[in-house]
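Hi, here's the filled form for the chain we discussed.

Project: internal
Contact: R.S.
Residues: 282
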Amino acid sequence: MPTIEDFEQLQSKSNQLLVKLEELDSNEWQKKKDLIEEFIIVNRTLLENGKIQVVKKEFASYIVSKLNERNITVNRNGNFYKMFNSDEIEINKSRIESVDQKATEISSGRTTDEIFRDKVLAKPKKETAYTKYLEKEMKTLDDAKSLNNALLEKYNEDDEYERIMDDNFNEDMVLELIEAHSVINLARKQIDDRNKLSNYQKLNLQLLVNLGQTKAKAAQDVGYCSKYLSIGIERNDELTKLWDWVGECHVCHSDIKAVRDKAIQDYESGNEIDFDVPIKGY
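And the returned structure, exactly as it came back:
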């Protein structure tokens, strides 16, 4: 049975193959093909043993994206896809469109592994009577927006339309609109993931991400949305400013980090730990 060390060696070999492919001259086609085939086999072993998180039918797209990430060009013809099993290729949509989309996402700053890991962790899209109702409602709202734009254009262009619309307008319409807008905003706030966590909890999430935890995994562990984690936590300057305050003792105003670091150093050295135990109820 393969050990952790075996998989670490395979991961190292996968990275070494990428380096070799980067260094190859563009006209060394046969050598490049052999290295790519070996790269596929190594990563297939990692996939089958759960060491990389990729939906199996997207394995071919994953390999191409990993190569694109290093600017290693791939001739995506029939011979290339023959190196994959049939269940490792998405056949329900254009291969080129799928791979190009992944390349676009990577250029936005996210790594291949982050993109494909998010898809594994993502919950499947639900299709129920209620989701269909919501989709139809959104279509109705889009139609209403289109109608309002047309009415506004007519109002500005035609004096007769202006007169008719003004005659049918009343203050009750404004009050009804304000009421509807308030109800929608209140409902939106109640279901907004960003309101579920306190600032202290968000600081802990920010720390986890900074220490190397993936945004998708960190968000999943606390039932948070990974999209909001990027915008509202990872890149939240107002939240980051709180770190200095959190790291300060609110009684003596000393640097808690410095005190704890010294205590750990004393402990590891076998010295007596020289700090007072806080009074109960501190």
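Let me know if anything looks off before we file it.
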